[in-house]
Please model this.
Amino acid sequence: MINDETTLNVMLETVARFVKERLIPIEEEVSETDHIPAEVVDEMRELGLFGLSIPEEYGGLGLTLEEEVNVVFELCHAAPVFRSVIGTNVGIGSLGIVFDGTEEQKHKYLPALASGELIASFCLTEPEAGSDAAALRATAVKDGDHYVLNGTKRFITNAPEAGLFTVFARTDPADKGARGVSAFVVDAGTPGLSLGKNERKMGQWGGHVCDVVFEDCRVPASALLGGKEGQGFKTAMKILDKSRTHIAAVCVGAAERVIQETLTYAMERKQFGKPIADFQLIQAMLADCKAEAYAARCMVVDTARKYDLKKNVSMEASCAKLFASEMVCRVADKGVQIHGGYGYTREYAVERFFRDMRLFRIFEGTSQIQQTIIAKNMIKNAS
Amino acid sequence: MKVLVCIKQVPDMESRFKLNAAGNWYDTADLAWRMNEYDEFAVEQAVLLKEKAPDTELVALSIGPERVKEAMKKALAMGIDRGVHVQDEASFEKDPYQIASVIAEYARNENFDLILTGMQSQDRGSAQVGILVGEMLGLPAVSTVVGFALDGQVVTAKRELEGGLKAVVKVGLPALFTCQLGLNTPRYPTLPNIMKAKKKELTAIPVATLLKDEALAVTEKVSYPEKRGSGLVLEGEIGELTTKLVALLKEKTSVFK
Model:
């Protein structure tokens, strides 16, 4: 749902200009140094990018999901690591509070998350609980008017920068499944909370991921998300329905960038006396990329529209995330292929995109988990 | 102080232009639209003035179809207080004289202290509208401004001349200035300000109520430049290349005659 097309178009123009003038020129430097300059993050704050999805009454822009994915398409024409900076505030890190937080939690955190003053992280995955998230082992034990958290969370995006963690832990040790899980909002710096070392990743350099470790970490009872135990897994699934659509949009934006880079190259690079774009085998690859990226864009927009109409989009969000993440890897692979030997060097952006894209088939639910969700929904709807 | 900023919406200059059916302008279908770059300098200059003197009132005016509201929203998001949209589906058929007369007609009784326009539009490029508005309102008009300082009721403006020269001009208000590249760096309208711009006043006026003059110069035809032959690239060893080049110069030019 687009509330005001004129307003959205002005936003898209602003984001496109920012991408072109400020982000694309420093992509390579960010990757080489594994660091996004602080002034660029400040500019992203000032532009309002951290508050895309946070309701207006808490200082965000309150965009609908259809509006948000349009902004994401545009933003992700730059290297995906820039999106990653705002990604947790717009998505998984803040949505738990937006959906299920108490009024007090919303007022305490959302304005600072919307402005980007506070960075949020999402602590669900554990060393032994990846795809099987409901099997998580972290515990939260009630002790008077506090909870005591213990456990290790793995691959936590933006954890080194985070001021706030949405943490999923088991409050009911008797229930080993989803119903025993609760969510907490924990401030960075709480005694007993520490960070592991930065993971050395395949791509998305400049974005940071590490373990978050809780050792007898005492948080006040008011840190229990929504003030209710046993709701954590439901909250996590609600978050993921929305954030998977967002990630699918990231894949579409990135695919469009790779296609544009590749098309430019194919039209300039000459072999056998003419531009390689004149050759039908190259054209076939270009056309496949375009068709797939377009299909994914349509899936993302359709899912976002249904979400905005308050329909259940669990299956559609998984379809979009599955298809878009697989698509962007195929597109990046063809991008490298069309660039030939140059595509295997760091001189060309496609080499970096090829590595960066691989993550999208893994995080926020692997492709196989998306397939499982889709099939379960199909069977459920038919029975 | 009351300031008028005139803005035009133009196509993104990276667009591929096609001619319209009448052959007198470009086809407007499938184009992405932007605020004329020179007008952005004018908007930025106005907003800078308001930052120094918050009681300044900034009004932006644009002539054109419904879509020009997008450029106006951008101006409002950059800091303009209110917008005036002169609705005109056929603004592209009007010559600079008519456009200027529409603006002048609007501005005549509004008592603006300062009018800012772009130096020219990126599409028509006549560089006439601003100067004509100044003339029609009996205001001093200063063109191609790259420096602007207001002190009381006097503006010290730096103008760009040909050959890299600059001139400094002192002008008492009310006056009109056309803004040139180099005057400032237009700010990004932030997303929160774009949302807030929705609540700012945007008045619509049908062009018929302001249009009093006939066109003086009608665009008859627009065409692409004639295609030139592509350059010739000689390949081979140096000695061989020299021979080829000399032969070509003898054959096709008169340099060896």
Q: What stands out?
A: The mean pLDDT of chain B is 94. Residues 2-209 of chain B form a domain with the Rossmann fold fold (CATH 3.40.50.620). The CA atoms of residues 100 and 133 of chain B lie 5 Å apart. The first helix of chain B runs from residue 37 to 52.
